[in-house]
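Field log, afternoon session.

UNIT: design team B
ACTIVITY: writing a sequence onto a fixed backbone
BACKBONE:
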């Protein structure tokens, strides 16, 4: 069982103690490596530890959770917000929190939050180890793309990735050839859904079978067989990881 390295960031000592006790009793796969009562202490712990998850209160002295995350910048850990105020839910979503717990903390919800983070981390680990078991494609598929004087047939697996260009899409083939098509990226996301393609960013759709590496971050970056590195937005990370078991 992989232990999740975690810290608790909470200005109230009683709340820190309660959450720590709950985690110790009900979440055996979480190891609390430190606790902080303000942003400054939290930054020290984040910079000095390889963390998997941060349990983070919103309201703190001299700032709040969002100030902390802004100072951290790109991050490799998941965030579980723990707060007494539900009005921060939208802000937490925009900050790409993995989970949002309301005080008093429900044990069931805490376990769900930890399970959710654990699942993400397991899939990330599989990517890092290059255990790349993309979903089976079955028979190779073909798609048609419009060209000026008709249409052209492409093997789906010859496509490396697609990039949005306003109402057009730039298709990059493994051969190095590029094709500009008068269709939106959404069109290709739907057309290629059964052929092992994943939307990893508002501007990029990639062939998951061509992924050879992954770099962790807020969303991370995938490395394709051509050496091309493509940013993964935090909101699309789960979509990418779903292709890897």
């Amino acid at each position: 069982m992989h232990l999740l390295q975690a810290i608790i960031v909470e200005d109230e000592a009683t709340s820190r103690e309660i959450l720590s006790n709950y985690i110790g009793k009900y979440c055996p796969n979480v190891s609390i490596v430190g606790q902080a009562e303000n942003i400054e202490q939290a930054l020290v712990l984040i910079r000095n530890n390889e963390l998997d998850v941060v349990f983070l209160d919103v309201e703190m002295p001299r700032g709040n959770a969002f100030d902390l995350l802004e100072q951290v910048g790109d991050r490799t850990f998941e965030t579980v917000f723990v707060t007494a105020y539900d009005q921060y839910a939208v802000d937490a979503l925009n900050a790409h929190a993995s989970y949002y717990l309301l005080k008093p903390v429900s044990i069931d919800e805490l376990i769900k939050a930890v399970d959710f983070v654990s699942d993400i981390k397991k899939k990330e680990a599989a990517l890092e180890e290059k255990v790349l078991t993309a979903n089976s494609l079955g028979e190779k598929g073909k798609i048609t793309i419009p060209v000026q004087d008709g249409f052209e047939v492409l093997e789906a697996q010859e496509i490396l990735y697609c990039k949005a260009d306003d109402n057009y899409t730039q298709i990059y083939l493994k051969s190095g050839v590029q094709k500009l098509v008068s269709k939106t990226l959404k069109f290709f996301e739907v057309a290629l859904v059964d052929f092992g393609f994943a939307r990893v960013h508002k501007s990029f759709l990639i062939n998951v079978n061509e992924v050879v590496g992954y770099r962790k971050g807020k969303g991370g970056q995938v490395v394709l067989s051509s050496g091309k590195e493509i940013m993964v937005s935090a909101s699309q990370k789960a979509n990418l990881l779903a292709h890897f078991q």
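LOG NOTE: Residues 142-241 form a domain with the OB fold (Dihydrolipoamide Acetyltransferase, E2P) fold (CATH 2.40.50.1020).
NEXT ACTIVITY: expression trials, pending approval
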